[in-house]
Design goal:
With about 400 residues, this protein is α+β, with helices and mostly antiparallel strands. The protein contains 8 helices and 21 strands. It is globular, with a radius of gyration of 21 Å. The two termini are about 30 Å apart.
């Protein structure tokens, strides 16, 4: 009879893995997590001090129930730890009247009764003079939006999981995942761990875990930028909500000032492909600086158009820009989370629930079927199975 080390193993205790561990621990499920760095590290997609939390969702109204559940869980994690993780500043969605962008946002609002205001051009210009408002620019002010503190949120989810009985191995290099009839094995430099169920939440390293799944997500480099302001009082969170703006040929997002001196504003598009996540180039390209400075000059004139800080991160992008979350097609003992395509952090608590549900009961009540990995073509050979996970985590 096989002796298991815990009921569930979790490979990757970052954004999604820490939430999965927290959910499992709250249910009294024994779980062991393996993290190649430490929870809250900045080497993938969870750095940069702040992440948007949007409820009037331009990516599709079907996300709204997951977002609302995530908000409740973020607030619970904050209450349990005594740390404010979610700052509900409201969120401005600014664009051209009648644009596809604003139509998508409006659809989420209408279908789910999201608390909001619609600001016409004059109202937008009057209430938010920090933005350069052109004729035809309008906005939704989503009162159910704000921002999250990513590094501390991941670290606290992991520490809460440990407080409740979970085990997290930090700086733990996983060298192989092996499927046997008796167990799912996780091989580290120290020993072999055996589990009846496994969750793989390895972020941008997921493409190294999933041979034979087509299309694999692409790893894309993301650059975040900070700009100084001579009037920091105009960019505090009580007067300057988070925003997403598509106008004048630019697509940008911004946050209130956290440090009282700089404002984080960045391009929404990923920049270029990363061939190997272990070899990420953290030097931003000059062309990006030129583009984002042009955007600042055009759209946010109260910010000095000089990049005084830049952070380079990564995320995995799928072909349809929706994540894959659910059982691995050819072995349902394994649940996989990946490919969040630049908009996953806010959803992490709901994704942790989905992963914990699948790892314990094989199903979930949350409306996440549209993220099922089975929507992608799968062509897994016997050789793929033998090679599965040779480079899981480093």
């Amino acid at each position: 009879m096989t002796r298991f080390d815990a009921e569930v193993g979790v490979v990757g205790v970052g954004t999604m893995g820490a939430q999965t561990m927290w959910q499992l621990a709250r249910r009294g499920v024994s779980a062991i997590g393996f993290e190649q760095f430490a929870p809250g590290h900045d080497r993938s997609g969870a750095g940069g001090e702040s992440r948007l939390f949007r409820t009037a969702y331009l990516e599709g109204s079907h996300y709204v129930p997951l977002l609302r559940r995530s908000r409740a869980e973020w607030e619970r994690l904050g209450a349990d730890t005594g740390v404010r993780l979610l700052h509900m500043t409201g969120g401005l969605m600014i664009g051209t009247d009648g644009s596809t962008f604003l139509e998508s946002v409006g659809r989420s609002i209408a279908e789910h009764g999201i608390d909001h205001e619609f600001l016409d051009t004059d109202a937008l210009r009057s209430r938010y003079p920090q933005h350069a408002v052109r004729a035809g620019d309008v906005a939704y002010l989503d009162h159910e939006s704000g921002y999250l503190r990513p590094e501390v949120a991941v670290a606290l989810a992991a520490s809460e999981a440990e407080r409740l009985g979970g085990v997290v191995h930090r700086r733990a290099r996983v060298t192989e995942i092996r499927m046997t009839d008796a167990a799912v094995e996780v091989h580290t430099d120290e020993r072999v761990f055996r589990f009846p169920r496994l969750v793989v939440s390895a972020g941008v390293w997921t493409s190294q875990l999933l041979p034979g799944i087509t299309p694999l997500h692409e790893v894309i480099r993301i650059v975040m930028t900070w700009f100084p302001t001579a009037t920091p009082e105009r960019f505090t969170e009580d007067v300057f909500p988070i925003f997403v703006r598509q106008s004048d040929g630019f697509d940008i997002s911004g946050w209130p000032s956290i440090d009282g001196a700089t404002v984080k504003i960045g391009l929404n598009n990923g920049w270029d492909r990363v061939a190997d996540p272990d070899l990420l180039d953290r030097t931003p390209p000059d062309a990006l600086f030129d583009e984002v400075r042009d955007a600042i000059r055009t759209l946010v004139p109260g910010v000095v158009p000089e990049v005084v800080r830049a952070g380079v991160y990564m995320d995995g992008y799928t072909a349809d820009h929706d994540a894959f979350v659910g059982p691995l097609g050819w072995d349902d003992r394994v649940t996989v989370l990946g490919g969040f395509s630049g908009h996953g952090f806010k959803l992490a608590p709901a994704m942790g629930i989905v992963a914990a549900d699948h790892a314990t009961t094989g199903a979930t009540d949350l409306p996440a079927a549209f993220l099922d990995p089975s929507r992608f073509s799968v062509n897994v050979t016997a050789a793929d199975r033998l090679r599965f996970g040779r480079r899981v985590s480093r």
